[in-house]
Specification:
Number of helices of chain B: 0
Structural class of chain A: mainly beta
Largest interface: A-B, 23 and 18 residues
Oligomer: heterodimer
Order of helices and strands of chain B: EEEEEEEEEEE
Mean pLDDT of chain A: 94
Mean pLDDT of chain B: 91
Largest sheet of chain B: 7 strands, mixed
Radius of gyration of chain A: 13 Å
Number of strands of chain A: 12
Number of strands of chain B: 11
Strand content of chain B: over 45%
Distance between the termini of chain A: 41 Å
């Protein structure tokens, strides 16, 4: 069975600084997708970034980038130049063909001014 | 594009009554929709997978007679909580998978804004 582990229940960062959220997963599949979702206080789930396992290049979306280490089954999210609007709960998620999204427990990130 | 709506956004009902939550894909067709339940500061828990025109597949431990799911069209799925009790109070989120997306992106799910259910 696939599992996703987020070992940091809560984190805080100063505005404009950089923070990295950790995620590890366990699977025997070779082709799959990984996602980071953001859930702000409004509770709307927002896709932050996606990574396809067969692509070696790390995905980036503006201030958000990932460090994807397939052999180590690690998928961390780096947020650069943190902004107050980044305050949210962040979920790492995994999926492979035809199956269901598997979410981690989440990390609450607080950006302080 | 890829907008999913839920209605209502917040509902309060009395214990023993039933409440229906609608999930609509507004600008795409969804063969598959998913229903999640979320408690405060916790992760999303998948309740069931809903496929258009067929019976929903429920996750282990989810009472199918209590949480009725109907996926009547490619743009609408409904979750009915029957004989609701205070322990059913929670935040319910639906998501949808786009039928028309290219293969690489077809795994992505688009989430609705959620429905807060309070049972008194």
């Amino acid at each position: 069975a696939q599992t996703v582990t987020q070992s940091q229940p809560e984190m805080s960062v100063q505005e404009a600084e950089t923070v990295t959220l950790s995620c590890t997963y366990d699977t025997s599949e070779n082709n799959y997708y990984l996602f980071w979702y953001k859930q702000p206080p409004s509770r709307q789930m927002i896709l932050v970034i996606r990574q396809e396992a067969y692509k070696q290049q790390n995905a980036t979306e503006n201030r958000f980038s990932v460090n994807f280490q397939k052999a180590a089954k690690s998928f961390s999210l780096k947020i650069s130049d943190s902004q107050l609007g980044d305050t949210a709960m962040y979920f790492c998620a995994f999926i492979f063909y035809g199956n269901k999204l598997v979410f981690g427990a989440g990390t609450i990130l607080r950006v302080k001014s | 594009g890829a907008v999913v709506s839920q209605h209502p956004s917040w509902v309060i009902c009395k214990s023993g009554t039933s409440v229906k939550i609608e999930c609509r894909s507004l600008d795409f067709q969804a063969t598959t929709m998913f229903w999640y339940r979320q408690f405060p500061k916790q992760s999303l828990m998948l309740m069931a997978t809903s496929n258009e025109g067929s019976k929903a597949t429920y996750e282990q431990g989810v009472e199918k007679d209590k949480f009725l799911i109907n996926h009547a069209s490619l743009t609408l799925s409904t979750l009915t909580v029957t004989s609701a009790h205070p322990e059913d109070s929670s935040f319910y989120i639906c998501s949808a998978r786009d039928l028309g997306m290219v293969a690489g992106l077809s795994y992505e799910q688009y989430f609705g804004p959620g429905t807060r259910l309070t049972v008194t």
